[in-house]
Design brief:
It is built from 5 helices and 2 strands; from the N terminus they run βααβααα. With about 120 residues, the protein is mostly helical. The chain has a two-stranded antiparallel ribbon. α1 packs antiparallel against α2. The longest helix has 30 residues. The protein is elongated and about 55 Å long.
Length: about 120
């Protein structure tokens, strides 16, 4: 059974959200150049990316604060929850103590996700 202290799990999820906030901010910078030359829909989309960045960052900080307050003795069983995660690297980051075989056994395949290109 995969068990992890609740405080450590919350901190891991907070870090994932913090990383996503950074990635979203990078995306915002990428699409935001010369935004005044674009139509209203474009500007609203850019503002939506900025809001998403702020929400992810706020959720990260919120969860990190909860993790700091969580009792170190609280543990959570992760088998079911890890089974819902399709990205193996994300599984490893959320439960680093579990070995690769244990994580792969939960989903039947060691897949880093699908790549879909839009044309």
């Amino acid at each position: 059974m995969s068990i992890r202290p609740m405080a450590a799990l919350i901190q891991s999820v907070a870090e994932e959200l913090r990383n996503l906030a950074g990635s979203t901010e990078d995306l915002h910078r990428l699409v935001c150049h010369d935004h005044l030359e674009h139509d209203v829909d474009y500007i609203q989309t850019v503002q939506s990316i900025d809001r998403t960045t702020q929400i992810l960052d706020n959720l990260s900080t919120f969860l990190a604060a909860i993790g700091e307050e969580a009792n170190e003795e609280w543990n959570v069983a992760l088998e079911t929850a890890l089974g819902t995660i399709r990205l193996s690297e994300l599984k490893r980051r959320l439960h680093p103590a579990a070995n690769d075989a244990q994580l792969s056994a939960n989903d039947g395949a060691d897949d880093d996700g699908d790549l879909e290109l839009f044309g």
